Automatic annotation (TrEMBL):
PROSITE patterns: CN_HYDROLASE. GO terms for cellular component: cytosol. Pathway: Cofactor biosynthesis; NAD(+) biosynthesis; NAD(+) from deamido-NAD(+) (L-Gln route): step 1/1. In the C-terminal section; belongs to the NAD synthetase family. It comes from Psilopogon haemacephalus (coppersmith barbet). Keywords: ATP-binding, Ligase, NAD, Nucleotide-binding. GO terms for molecular function: ATP binding; glutaminase activity; NAD+ synthase (glutamine-hydrolyzing) activity. Residues 5-275 form the CN hydrolase domain. It comes from the Eukaryota. HAMAP family: NadE_glutamine_dep. This is Glutamine-dependent NAD(+) synthetase. CDD domains: GAT_Gln-NAD-synth, NAD_synthase. The gene is Nadsyn1. The lineage of its organism: Eukaryota, Metazoa, Chordata, Craniata, Vertebrata.
């Protein structure tokens, strides 16, 4: 009768402008899908060129090379007898669209342009593409000669249409369209579309995965149907980590779940589903059927092909499963670790160097590298030959097999404790013990000679010697001396990153890792061009609160007992003189606010779009049990003064893994001035009027 359809979706680790690699990964996913009996395969958004091409989309080369790859796909034997749905940019009548190109047996069936473009947060699709605004309309697209020679077609349908095969009807959504309030699947489902596909370029944010899963399942819960979602995975060249989670859903229930974090460049999900389950589910929803009787029909592209076999009564179909979500601590352990691995192997460096202070932030960064080593060893044990080849190239040993995380850590990870006269023995011991437990190559050095040399130059030129406030100096002197220590650590970090392996007779250089968390960046509690200045920062989008929970997770799951004393110690920069051998300086006292308060300020500022006055209005209710209105006003004013005074630091912030929706990343996510009127006179006066 033809009712059991076998479909495939995938998560691919595509890389912007890596046309050769992207082609190979697409072909491999199609081969896997076919080997598992699939008759339809969908891949991630813009998978041919890679999602993160940014302003390269303006270049005609990007369009040309995308069509060249499409020609290779059309010609490949791997793409025969399976409907292939791939993503690429297409120029139609001199307008650039983000498209799906759907083809079968060397014939293009439909080019479907994206209708709703993602243009918030990290997304800027309206900068490069135009949405297709002609609902349920199709035009002729004149194929370039390179494609005509393969398909023997002059023109193909371009627009908002659906595919009618011999046994079912398929409709396309592209990423943002699932999130839109008027998603196309609603009208398509009413018009008889039974299988919805979605190609996404959706990045990881802590605690976000369930939202995507709920949207997919709810898409078919009210209207019935099969929903197939593909997503990009990995770091494709910037701050984002695309977190896979390919999935297949039927009538509101998850049928197949892909991994959210893994080192597999190609992951394919295949499921067999019964079309009659969709039809019987819809049959009893009278409100749906009444709406369907009035819907405007979609243009249908007829396809002489079936996703099922005529004799499939005995074919087993897949049953619903329970989606397993990672805890936030697991997400921190896995997401940034996979991002670091992609960055390391694609940058062709030999490892990482981390200034390890013995505090929570740098220790969390070290734990993420250790988690990365865990993931590499696990992938190799599971037979991932790509990971093995990358590991051998990184360590410059063609016979190497990474089996134990500590041993791999020793080869690819260098930690460095940079002591000064203001450092305590406690932090030195904590850093040393953690380095021993994770297996990193650890260096202990003292920066006092360099600090005194620079101060000596200043004194020789000016005739004045700055002093810490503990020794009678002014606040200006005190801050300058703290900044000097921090900046010398940055210079030494880069020197050791370039030459440490040279001293050991090993080729290559190291990437410098930063470890400023999202709350410190928001407040500006960092020295411009200090150790927060690095090549990349895996924790720059993660809050102090989440990092503390992650450290506890590492104690329990990696048995890193050195972290216990790090957890219990108060956060400190150790840039001011010790008092009786003990640290007198602490972060929260220096900042004039707690890390918990900073997280709240950050979420209100960015997510709730609150300026000083609105933030005050919200906090007098949130904190009414603990703070009087006048105290709330004082806290809000202090935060906005410090935020605006230090906002210029965000322009030089180290590229960081994006994990929080209140990130102050100035590059693309949080677009603000960096020269403020820091008195906020009008705004603060409004607050004062309410206080009074």
């Amino acid at each position: 009768m033809g009712r059991a359809v076998t479909v495939a979706t995938c998560a691919l680790n595509q890389w912007a402008l890596d046309f050769e690699g992207n082609l190979q990964r697409i072909l491999r996913s199609i081969e896997i899908a076919k080997s598992k009996g699939a008759r339809y395969r969908i891949g991630p958004e813009l998978e041919i060129c890679g999602y993160g091409c940014s302003d390269h989309y303006y270049e005609s080369d990007t369009l040309l090379h995308s069509f060249q790859v499409l020609a290779k796909l059309l010609e490949s034997p791997a793409t025969q007898d399976i409907i292939c749905d791939v993503g690429m940019p297409v120029l139609h009548r001199n307008v650039r669209y983000n498209c799906r190109v759907i083809f079968l047996n060397k014939k293009i069936l439909l080019i479907r342009p994206k209708i709703s473009l993602a243009n918030a947060g990290n997304y800027r699709e309206l900068r490069w593409f135009t949405p297709w605004n002609k609902a349920r309309q199709v035009e002729e697209y004149f194929l370039p000669r390179i494609i005509q020679e393969v398909t023997e077609q002059d023109t193909v349908p371009f627009g908002d249409a659906v595919l009618a095969t011999r046994d079912t009807c398929l409709g396309v959504e592209i990423c943002e369209e699932l999130w839109a309030p008027n998603s196309p699947h609603i009208e398509m489902g009413l018009d008889g579309v039974e299988i919805f596909t979605n190609s996404s370029g959706s990045h990881h944010v802590l605690r976000k995965a369930h939202t995507r899963v709920d949207l997919v399942n709810s898409a078919t819960a009210k209207n019935g149907g099969i929903y197939i979602l593909a997503n990009q995975k990995g770091c494709d060249g910037d701050r984002l980590y695309y977190d896979g989670c390919a999935m297949i859903s039927l009538n509101g229930e998850t049928i197949a779940q892909g991994s959210q974090f893994s080192l597999d460049d190609v992951e394919v999900l295949v499921a067999t589903l019964d079309l009659e389950d969709v039809r019987s589910y819809r049959a009893e929803i009278s409100s749906r059927n009444l709406a369907a009787s009035k819907v405007n029909p979609y243009p249908r592209v007829k396809v002489n092909f079936a996703l099922s076999c005529s004799d499939d009564v005995a074919v087993p179909t897949c049953m619903p499963i329970q989606w397993r979500h990672h805890s936030p601590e697991e997400e921190i352990s896995l997401g940034p670790a996979c991002w670091l691995w992609d960055y390391l192997r694609r940058s062709k460096q030999a490892g990482f160097l981390l200034p390890l202070s013995g505090g929570i932030d740098s220790s969390a960064t070290a734990c993420i590298v250790y988690s990365m080593c865990h993931q590499v060893c696990l992938a190799v044990r599971n037979g991932n030959t790509d990971v093995l080849a990358d590991a051998r190239r990184i360590v410059n040993d063609e016979s190497y097999v990474p089996e134990e995380p500590r041993e791999l850590c020793k080869r690819v990870f260098t930690t460095c404790y940079m002591a000064s006269e203001n450092s305590s023995q406690d932090t030195c011991n904590r850093a040393k013990l953690l380095a021993e437990q994770i297996g990193s190559y650890h260096i202990n050095l003292n920066i006092d000679v360099a600090v005194k040399a620079v101060v000596g130059i200043f004194s020789m030129v000016t005739g004045r010697t700055p002093r810490f406030s503990a020794y009678g100096g002014s606040s200006r002197e005190n801050l300058a001396l703290q900044n000097l220590q921090a900046r010398i650590r940055m210079v030494l970090a880069y020197l050791f990153a370039q030459l440490t392996l040279w001293t050991r007779g090993i080729p290559g250089g190291l990437l410098v890792l930063g470890s400023a968390n999202v709350d410190e960046s928001l407040r500006g509690y960092l020295t411009k061009y200090d150790c927060s200045s690095a090549d990349i920062n895996p924790i720059g989008g993660i809050s102090k609160t989440d990092l503390k929970n992650f450290i506890q997770y590492c104690i329990e799951n990696f048995q890193l007992t050195a972290l216990r004393s790090i957890m219990s110690a108060p956060p400190t920069a150790e840039l001011e003189p010790l008092v009786d051998g003990q640290v007198a300086q602490t972060d929260e006292v220096d900042m004039g606010m707690t890390y918990a308060e900073l997280s709240i300020y950050g979420k209100l500022r960015k997510i709730a779009k609150a300026g000083p006055y609105s933030m005050f209005c919200k906090l007098i209710n949130m904190w009414k049990e603990v703070c009087a209105p006048r105290e709330v006003a004082s806290k809000v004013k202090h935060f906005f003064r410090m935020y605006s005074v230090n906002r210029h630091k965000m322009t030089t912030l180290t590229p960081a893994y994006h994990a929080e929706n209140y990130s102050p990343d100035d590059n693309r996510f949080d677009l603000r001035p960096f020269l403020y009127n820091t008195t906020w006179s009008w705004q603060f006066r409004c607050i004062d009027q309410q206080v009074n």
